[in-house]
């Protein structure tokens, strides 16, 4: 009976920015960053779908990455903004579990999409004559479908494992959202299996995709070094620049979050690191891809002028 009472949790408390009231003054900046994230990524999706010149595997994956970025930010940021505005710290048990599930789906999907984009660049540079044969629409669609199925299954598995846990008092999470490792620390019941599952799946899906990206770029660099023309080498490598920047940003801030949460007990430092990962990275991705890409810039200008003409 005691276990049943403990499991009946009403809410968790998110302490992310509550320790520092002055951060509430930054509400306008956080809201602006979120709106820029949504608008910027939405423009990328619309640009890719509206221009037939951008109907290639690279841009197909980019539009899916942009959609994933919108969802990734939307999972955590609106709740954070509401809590700062209302000066509330609470999130319901159901809301917390839902947030964990969706956060895991889109974090994993982002991993898989970045790996698929690395594979696309590898085929384009190392096997250019076979590119259209290998990266056909069917394979691209299957890669997206496989990524989504894996992401959903991973998230549901972790979420169902959290459902079996019982929680006691002092349900304070040193974050602005429900982060799975932090929630597991609050459980009264044994979380050994949860932690083993977490480390196992993170190793396979996180480290596995990251190593896949590194392997792809080692092959790309090896292929570029064999090119006789430096002009061809520069042109080929410039197509990878945007993807490398996004990968560095995503994994760099991701590692920063987990190293920071392991090394410090400060909810402010942990929250700022997570903010970089969940809000700043998705906000910068559209700028990285559009500013470094003449085709994308041209299409975005046409799209914005079309939208402006309606008003």
Give a nutshell description of this structure:
The protein is built from 11 helices and 3 strands; from the N terminus they run αβααβαααβααααα. It is an all-alpha fold.
Report on this structure.
- This protein has helices at residues 2-7, 27-50, 57-86, 93-126, 131-134, 137-163, 180-185, 192-225, 230-263, 267-291, 294-309, and strands at residues 11-14, 90-92, 172-173.
- The model is unreliable at 1-7 (pLDDT under 50).
- Helix 4 runs parallel beside helix 8 and helix 9 packs antiparallel against helix 10.
- With 311 residues, it is mainly alpha-helical.
- Strands 2-1-3 form a three-stranded mixed β-sheet.
Question: What are the defining features of this structure?
Answer:
mainly alpha, 3-stranded mixed beta sheet, 311 residues, 11 helices
Terminus-to-terminus distance: 63 Å
The ordered H/E elements are HEHHEHHHEHHHHH
What's the helical proportion of residues?
A: over 70%
Using the alpha-carbon principal axes, give the shape.
globular
* Most strands sheet: 3 strands, mixed
Over the alpha carbons, how many angstroms does the gyration radius reach? Answer: 21 Å
* Uncertain stretches of 5 or more adjacent residues: 1-7
What is the structural class? mainly alpha
Portion in strands: under 5%
Strand order of the largest sheet: 2-1-3
Query: Number of helical runs?
Result: 11
Mean pLDDT: 84
Topology, number of strands: 3
């Amino acid at each position: 009976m005691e276990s049943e009472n403990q499991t009946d949790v009403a809410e968790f408390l998110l302490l992310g920015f509550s320790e520092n009231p002055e951060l509430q003054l930054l509400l306008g900046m956080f809201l602006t960053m979120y709106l820029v994230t949504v608008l910027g990524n939405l423009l990328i999706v619309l640009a890719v779908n509206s221009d037939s010149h951008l109907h290639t595997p690279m841009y197909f994956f980019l539009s899916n990455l942009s959609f994933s970025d919108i969802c990734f930010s939307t999972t955590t940021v609106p709740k954070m903004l509401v809590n700062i505005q209302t000066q509330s710290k609470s999130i319901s048990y159901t809301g917390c579990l839902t947030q964990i599930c969706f956060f895991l789906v889109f974090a994993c999907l982002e991993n898989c999409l970045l790996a698929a984009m690395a594979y696309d660049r590898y085929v384009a540079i190392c096997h250019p004559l076979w590119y259209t044969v290998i990266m056909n629409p069917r394979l691209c669609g299957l890669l997206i479908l496989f990524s989504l199925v894996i992401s959903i299954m991973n998230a549901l598995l972790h979420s169902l494992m959290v459902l079996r846990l019982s929680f006691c008092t002092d349900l304070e999470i040193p974050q602005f959202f429900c982060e799975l490792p932090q929630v597991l620390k609050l459980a009264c019941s044994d979380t050994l299996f949860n932690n083993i599952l977490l480390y196992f799946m993170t190793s396979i899906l996180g480290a596995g995709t990251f190593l896949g990206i590194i392997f792809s770029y080692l092959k790309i660099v090896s292929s570029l070094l064999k090119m006789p023309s430096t002009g061809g080498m520069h042109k080929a490598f410039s197509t990878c620049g945007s993807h490398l920047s996004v990968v560095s940003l995503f994994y760099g801030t991701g590692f920063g979050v987990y190293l920071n949460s392991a090394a410090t007990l400060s909810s402010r430092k942990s929250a700022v690191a997570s903010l970089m990962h969940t809000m700043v990275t998705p906000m910068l991705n559209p700028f990285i891809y559009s500013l470094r890409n003449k085709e994308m810039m041209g299409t975005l200008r046409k799209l914005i002028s079309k939208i402006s003409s309606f008003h």
